[in-house]
Design a protein that fits this description.
homodimer; alpha/beta; Rossmann fold; two-stranded antiparallel sheet; globular
């Protein structure tokens, strides 16, 4: 009722003045614009730009496939060479400023992956939430963890790269913040995407496996007691070290910490980052946080 | 005048009904919402998600730096090995389905780069347009080409990678759709970003250098008459072959063409793609173009 009342009043206000420019205001009386007026989110007509690029474009698929190709070559070479193996998992007590590497002794080799937007693209849930105009809904995501198997896609290059690594004798392990309560759903989603078998607490580690919540450090340490982790992959810094998620880090501080001289050499060389411009702690910041004053520009008047 | 009129009428319509849910509609009467009502674009309060990820996040910088590291290693190895050099520029008449490679004879080696979002991040212009709520304005962009020098940033890893390639005896060439009329502005922008000297029609090729407009194929052929192009880099498929921009290619067709069995091996191995979820022909498509029916999902009711 109130909506129709608003329409008629705005229509009236527009009818009252019909210069061409103002006529342009009329399309604003669409269902979406009206939804906005009553505080609802409009249903989008196309996916967000980041989803168009990542899930739809050739370029998004190619950048992901390039990372997988580089990682597979690195892992294969590292597995086959005879040198004493070291693992890049951050040792207990070390920080991203001063990562410590440990000798592996005779442990079997492993590569550790995040799952979401690293092994699989969650296209089923992402499309549903985007079509609903929802940024993220934990309840919907929980349903997705339970029932999304078969609706998630292996990322471009993942199937081939995992085969190369496994053929070189490297165990593939997933360490994800999906919940342990939905372990079977995640095992099924990874298998049905064509990525092979992942078994909870053997080759699949989930949030709830230890008391440290969303930090993956404890699970990384658990994995490192059994395996020599020669490579790690993810789409967010927390997939490599929880210290990157420290509270109060500004956008610029976080970027500098992750590219400081002790860490920079690891990227593409033991640590492998996949592009995810769709969601996550990587995506935040106002204009003054994203851009520096030194590069501020405006056209000549 | 008409705006104030609209405010008062909407305010009135809301004042007429004051259930809690409807009270939420009041904030909609902000300057931005009102601008929308009269057909203007609201001024955003933060950059678009793609800009937050690419220009601000550690992850965006790391993915770009990884591509540069991989490319520098590839180019250096290719330059130093004794095998007969071949170039990956598509030969005249060849298509992305059947790329032809040509022997280089004794030509000097070169690596060919797009400029925008491949060598430099156009943060000055991107911030200005985003703050104005403008997607893209050719007139503003033209001003940026002329006066943006010093306000564009070398992409993460670019300075180090270009040094590695030049030290290996490889000439760095830019092939961009910036206009030849603004050649000096682009030479200055690249130099002031720390990327070294680029000279128009020697190491910098621009739109207008030949009659074929935005196609870079003719310029690639010109470069290939003088150089052995052992690697190419860009953020859009047109930086590699104009055929990828053929009219009428669907989002899926374009992705399949660029990842077909004849092309897929080139990515990360002669052809290097940088992430750009901000602008360009890579970013288009509705829900049914970005997502396949096979992965459609919704939560259990």
């Amino acid at each position: 009722m109130m909506r129709r009342f608003t329409i008629s009043l705005i229509a009236l206000s527009l009818a009252g003045c019909s210069a061409p420019g103002q006529q342009l205001a009329v399309p604003v009386l669409s269902k979406d614009a009206l939804a906005t007026q009553v505080g609802e989110k409009p249903s989008p007509t196309s996916p967000p730009t980041g989803q168009q690029w990542l899930y739809g474009s050739a370029e998004g698929s190619i950048v992901s496939a390039q990372v997988y190709k580089t990682m597979a070559q690195y892992v294969r070479a590292k597995a086959l060479n005879r040198a004493i193996k070291t693992q890049t998992v951050l040792a207990k007590g070390s920080t991203p400023d001063a990562p410590r590497f440990e000798s592996c002794g005779t442990k079997p080799l492993a590569a550790v992956f995040d799952a979401d937007e690293t092994l699989i693209w969650n296209v089923g849930a992402m499309r549903y939430m985007a079509e609903q105009g929802i940024d993220f809904d934990p309840a919907i995501w929980n349903e997705w963890e339970k029932s999304g198997a078969g609706k998630a896609l292996a990322m471009p290059g993942a199937v081939e790269a995992l085969k190369t690594m496994r053929d070189a004798g490297v165990t593939i392990i997933a360490n994800t913040n999906r919940t342990a309560a939905n372990a079977k759903g995640t095992e099924d989603a990874l298998r049905m995407a064509g990525l092979g078998e992942f078994k909870h607490q053997e080759t699949l580690y989930l949030m709830g496996d230890d008391p440290t919540g969303s930090s993956k450090d404890g699970r990384r340490a658990t994995i490192a007691t059994k395996y020599c982790v020669i490579a790690m992959a993810g789409d967010q810094l927390g997939d490599f070290a929880h210290a990157f998620n420290a509270n109060g880090l500004s956008v610029a501080d976080r970027r500098m910490l992750a590219t400081n001289p002790a860490i920079l050499p690891l990227w593409g060389n033991g640590w492998f980052m996949f592009p995810n411009p769709v969601y996550g702690p990587s995506i935040r910041g106002g204009f003054d946080e994203i851009y520096s004053p030194q590069t501020k520009w405006e056209p000549a008047k």
